[in-house]
Amino acid sequence: MKQYIVRRFLQMIPTLLGTTFIVFVIINMAPGSPLSHMVDPTISAEAIERRREQLGLDRPLLQRYGSWLVEAVQGNLGYSTRYRGRLVTDIIQTRLGPTIILTFSSIIVSFILAVPIGVISATRQYSALDYSVVVSAIAGVSIPVFFLGIVLIYLFGFQLGWLPVGGMAAAGVRHPTWLSYAADVARHLVLPLVTLTAANTARFVRFTRSSMLEVIRQDYVRTARAKGLSERVVIYRHALRNALLPVVTILGLSLPFLFSGAVITEAVFAWPGMGTLLIESVSLRDYGLLMGINLFLAVLVIIGNLLADIFYSVVDPRIRYD
Amino acid sequence: MMRRIIAKLLKSSASDNSLNGAKNDDIVSPGKIIWKRFRRNRIAIVGSVVLLVLIVLAILAPVIAPYERDAIELARREQAPSSEHLFGTDRQGRDLFTRVLYGGRISLSVGLVASSLQMVIGVILGCLAGYYGKWIDTIIMRITDMVIAFPFLALAITAAAILGPSIYNTMLIIGLLTWTETCRLVRGQFLSIKQMEYIEAAKATGASEFRIVWRHMLPNAWAPVLISATLIMATAILVEAALSYLGLGVQAPIPSWGNILEPARSMVVLMNMWWLWLPPGFLIFISVLSINLVGDGLRDALDPRLKN
Amino acid sequence: MTEPIVKLENVKKYFPIRGGVFSRVVGNIKAVDDISFSIQKGETLGLVGESGCGKSTLGRTILKLLDPTAGKVFYKDFDIFATQKEELRNLRREMQIIFQDPYSSLNPRLNVGEIVGECLEIHGIAYGREKQEKVESMLEVCGLAPHHRRRYPHEFSGGQRQRIGIARALTLNPDFIVADEPISSLDVSIQAQIVNLMEELQEKFGLTYLFISHDLSMVRHISDHVAVMYLGKIVEISGKKELYQNPLHPYTQALLSAVPVMDPDHKSKRIILRGDVPSPANPPQGCNFNPRCIYAEEHCRNEEPELRDVGSGHQVSCHLVEKM
Amino acid sequence: MPDLLEVKNLYTSFHTEDGVVPAVNGITFNLKHGESLGIVGESGCGKSVACLSIMRLIDHPGKIKADAIKLDGVELQSLSEKKMRTIRGNEMAFIFQEPMTSLNPVYTIGFQLQEAIQLHQGLNKKQSRTKSEEMLKMVGIPRAEKVFDEYPPSLSGGMRQRAMIAMALSCEPKILFADEPTTALDVTIQAQILELMNDLKQRINTSIIFISHDLGVISEMVDRVIVMYCGSIIEDADIRTIIKNPKHPYTFGLINSKPRIDVDLDKLIPIPGSVPNPLNIPSGCPYQPRCESAMDICKSKIPGKSQINEGHHVSCWLFSKQGGKIKS
């Protein structure tokens, strides 16, 4: 067990190195020099060259990656090229909160919705209910996130006027209490959350359902029935626990999906998170920031997977005997 | 449970008692079984028909389209749908019906090419990892882990911004970022097929490695690859649309369903010109949905073990 | 006295166990541990043992389908483990294998003709029409109809599939066949069909069999000699009659007494072994049977017994043979 | 006193996409108090499905139909599902073939034992723990207190099967269905389990229905045997008669096709052909295409049950008065 966790930790290192290196290479493929946006065009070519040397841009890629890595390990992701002199980590920090609010609430909501739907659907296989769940789940993963967002804005924002369609809080309003601020954020959260959660829920429903179908045909479920346990106990005690184990892993593995969805959702709803920051830094060609964001998301994904794996090995007694 | 009991009841016997009759036309080849199972799935059939219609429309776009693809006519800007312009006109006065037809060509082919690309990469790496195992497997699996850990869309956006947005870069980026699942599937298939006794039998008769892979392993591994290729094609269309919507995918004047929607990022367009975004958005949804339905039907037909 | 066609000398097959943080090799599963015996031409050697004792691994190692860890196997004059790729490929024509599972042993995507005829193509013996004819006649020999050539494996019952597997093994006209539990996944009434077929074919083509099975009754029926395996080692090997009527190793005795007898009047004293088979990753010290042996003495726990001849080719690996 | 179990004309069929699979085709038998009955037949003959049907453990797409399934005179088919649950695991218990997969891997052995005891006997946690440990000791599990807290994956197949037996017997059921309980085990472990079951049979007051494809195992375990083929009972008699004096050609074939551990046989006599596809059962007697004594009538009409002796019945035209006439 302990060994397994340690091994997983060690395995994480090359993954992180590889991931950051590839991102580093892509960023460095950018046409023109990263300095072209930073340096005043009136400065002479010589001065630019001196600055290049100063920044170490004339060194080979691998060496540059090395020194970048040394800094990154110490928590220094460099400076933003656009927001003059601001630390990338500082900028990311300010945008992290909104993204976490959005993604975490989406995970929680979709999980709460998906598990019961998946279970009920699986226990009534071949019923009309199951059939419609399956089809709507496929439809759910087929809607383009941004299109769903647009439709929701159009309907609930403009036509019905029920909900705010952009940002995280009403602009220019001073909130007297902490609570009223939270309420305002919650109102702003509704549409982005629905948008992001639709596809996630659909995906989790499919996982839960197929995992559950797999489990309810296992021998031990028949044993449980043969003991005279009620159907509720058979399903929720004996089957569900086994069925949820793989779902946990899948939860970890679907983090990249979740972040992808979040990027678009944020862009559509101008939610001030990492996603909008990413789009901004793309249009501003702020490579330092881009690098930071990608790295940051990659680390989140890797840690998420690691946690899911560890959690899995803790809750599944089978792992202990491997 | 019951399914297993039934399978057991059916397993011990020959599938057909008329096996001794010499009629050859009732030979049940694996292909026939797959087709029979697929046909039973009504929803998958509906999906296939819709998809087929979309493909035909895309192919015939130059024939059907009432206007020139990029014909700008500023006098007819921002018109709502009418009998003259079925889907209305855009902000440059181009006929949207025409552009949506052509856009289908681009969107569907980006999906197809990107998915084929990932399939090639995934199958080759998966074969290598699954067949040779050992350090080759370790290295390939580590690379797969890295790519899986990429914040997919964020990296795609970054790469598109850096490489410059274009159709080809979009295809390339999507292809390069989505092969991991195929690779894992093929590897997994190879690992389990390698355990099969028919592989040992082939070895025991002195078959070459090439023959074992080509004749015995690949034909038994392609089913999940095909299923995932379909599903990845659906994903690819979604990603292309998202990139293009953000202005980082296919660039105007070439239309794609995604970039036709781009003006809807402006609230004015979104509020007042629904015809600019509703038809392309709906078509993306319909095409992705029908591809997913076909993929799901294929899964049921090709891999009865997975049939739920 | 016939000459041996297959001869094993100290054959070992270990599987490494990996563990720890860096997946280093921390031990070995000694699936096959120092086995020597020979099989006479035209005979059947039955190899019995419980699941996990290494009997299937041994069968595959002899054919070099698994890479051996140590030892030598001679087939006629060839040192199989030392042969090079090309030579081994040619040798494969003479040594074949029949598998346990008639479901996983036939490639589901190929039709019967392709399955049975593939080896003819591989060795460049026959193609096209000629291949077809050979396949058809082999199918008939194995109790199937020629037109079955065009059918697919899933259209056949377990017994018929096993016939297809046998036809595949025999198409190259081999001399030596490893039959790895060929009947254990078949229904009782079909088992006899397959065993009878194997006996007929042996007579017809002068085949030599290594018949691997856990079914002691069937082994008694088909074998000339019988070897008993326990935890990767041969504990007893002898002529069939001698072994079944006069088993000397305590494990063999227990094994034979454990088989249920289809006779309500049968009242023999059954030896019930204590506990389970120990893990081959961590076999007991000394004689590996000692923890379950009712006769075990002090030196059984410390000293490993050798397989030794106790008269007329009856070999036993037990310290206490003389006392029993 | 009525028989403990009475089954009359039980039909179980599965409605699949490919057609109807008649797994059990109108079987009738009874089980007396304290009796051990064997059901023997090849895989797919419907012996397991028959027992699952009696327990009403068949679900979609299976359908059960019977004139009577009575336990101690009580018709089980008319019971509500809730009432039926008080019988399952309590008055009738099941041991399955696969000890490796029949226990839930994520709960301890003890938890799974306690579950049934608490449910049916209304014992509290502490009492049920004591009882569970007693049961584990009774089935010969060493260190029962420790095994109680272990998860199934840490036990060997033999140990798990012992735990399954403990679980099945924990509520002192009237009937124990043992569905090939030793088939998945090695022969030395099989001997342990059979000995255990024979030993328990003396000590507890439970009737046993023992399902197996192996007449050797059956003959060590039971008093009376039912032979099934293609979902029908083709012969039934006490074990001695079945083995020494079988009448049905199928029973005969089953016995002669098996080699013996104690005797050398020159040649095995196999049954020709293979079991028919249940989607396409031959007309008349289902065994007729494989039967060497088949007559014309066998191909067209299903034989009825004929009595050979007291307690020995066979369904075969060779022994039917009507069939005999046609033959002569």
Walk me through this protein's architecture.
The complex is a heterotetramer of chains A (322), B (308), C (324) and D (328). Chain A is mainly α. Chain A contains 13 helices and no strands. Chain A has one domain (88-315): MetI-like (MetI-like fold). In chain A, helix 4 (88-123) packs antiparallel against helix 5 (128-142), helix 4 packs parallel to helix 12 and helix 6 (145-159) packs across helix 7 (178-216). In chain C, helix 3 (112-122) packs across helix 4, helix 4 (128-141) crosses helix 5 and helix 5 runs parallel beside helix 6. Chain D is 34% helix and 23% strand. Chain D is built from twelve helices and 13 strands. In chain D, strand 8 (175-179), helix 7 and strand 9 form a beta-alpha-beta unit. Chains in contact: A-B, A-C, A-D, B-C, B-D, C-D. Chains A and B meet through helix 1, helix 5, helix 6, helix 7 and helix 8 of A and helix 1, helix 6, helix 7, helix 11 and helix 13 of B.
Number of helices of chain A: 13
Give the termini separation of chain A.
9 Å
**Per the principal axes of the C-alpha atoms, what is the gross shape of chain D?**
globular
Number of strands of chain A: 0
CATH class of chain A: Mainly Alpha
H/I helix tally of chain D: 12
Tally of extended strands of chain D? Answer: 13
What share of residues are in beta strands of chain D? Answer: 15-25%
Tell me which CATH architecture of chain A applies here: Orthogonal Bundle
Q: Main interface pair?
A: A-B, 65 and 49 residues
CATH superfamily of chain A: MetI-like
Oligomer: heterotetramer
CATH topology of the largest domain in chain D: Rossmann fold
Content-based structural category of chain D: alpha/beta
Give the CA-based shape of chain A.
globular
Radius of gyration of chain D: 21 Å
What's this entry about, in short?
The complex is a heterotetramer of chains A (322), B (308), C (324) and D (328). With 322 residues, chain A is mainly α.
Topology:
The complex is a heterotetramer of chains A (322), B (308), C (324) and D (328).
Chain A: H1 2-28, H2 45-55, H3 61-73, H4 88-123, H5 128-142, H6 145-159, H7 178-216, H8 219-226, H9 231-253, H10 255-269, H11 274-283, H12 287-315, H13 317-320
Helix pairs in contact in A: 1-12, 4-5, 4-7, 4-10, 4-12, 5-7, 6-7, 6-10, 7-9, 7-10, 8-9, 9-12, 10-11, 11-12
Chain C: E1 4-19, E2 24-40, E3 44-48, H1 55-62, E4 70-75, E5 78-79, H2 85-91, E6 95-98, H3 112-122, H4 128-141, H5 158-170, E7 176-180, H6 188-205, E8 208-213, H7 216-222, E9 225-230, E10 233-239, H8 240-245, H9 250-258, H10 298-302, E11 308-309, E12 315-316
Parallel strand pairs in C: 3-8, 3-9, 6-7, 7-8
Antiparallel strand pairs in C: 1-2, 1-4, 4-5, 9-10, 10-12, 11-12
Chain D: E1 5-16, E2 19-31, E3 36-40, H1 47-54, E4 62-65, E5 68-71, E6 74-75, H2 81-87, E7 92-95, H3 109-121, H4 125-138, H5 144-148, H6 157-169, E8 175-179, H7 187-203, E9 207-212, H8 215-221, E10 224-229, E11 232-238, H9 239-244, H10 249-256, H11 296-300, E12 306-309, E13 312-314, H12 321-327
